[in-house]
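Notes from hallway chat w/ T.B., transcribed later so I don't forget. T.B. wanted the structure written out for a chain they're using in a teaching module, and asked if we could keep both sequence and structure tokens in one place. Agreed to drop them here.
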Amino acid sequence: MDSAHQETQVEHAAEVTVECTGCKAEDAAAIFTVLRTCFASDRDADDAPRETAGAGPSVWTATFDVNQPRDTPEPTRLSAPCTVTLQGGYQAVDQLRKALLPAFVVSVAGTAAGDQEEEVSLRLESR
């Protein structure tokens, strides 16, 4: 295996995809802002979630690179509890989950384990 391929695997292992559902766009934006305080993201700060018309629930998604942690977030208010789903490597998902703890009350709602990745559903509430 060449070094470029290994680097790509390491970078991917540090990425966590986060989906926000069951909440208002403002709450999803608050969650993503907290996570951008902690980690680099594929979304710019001005790329805020917006409500869309339609019958189904809205799902907002962003990817965060936990390879180089940044600052610790402050407690953050949400208008109501929100559900977030984290998907990525075991260590990366755990690191991102722990980064949410200073900002929110975090409860694990469910998990699905794979060979090299896991999916964790969290309930976030205001701290």
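Follow-up for T.B.: The chain is about 30% helix and 35% strand. Might be a good example for the class.
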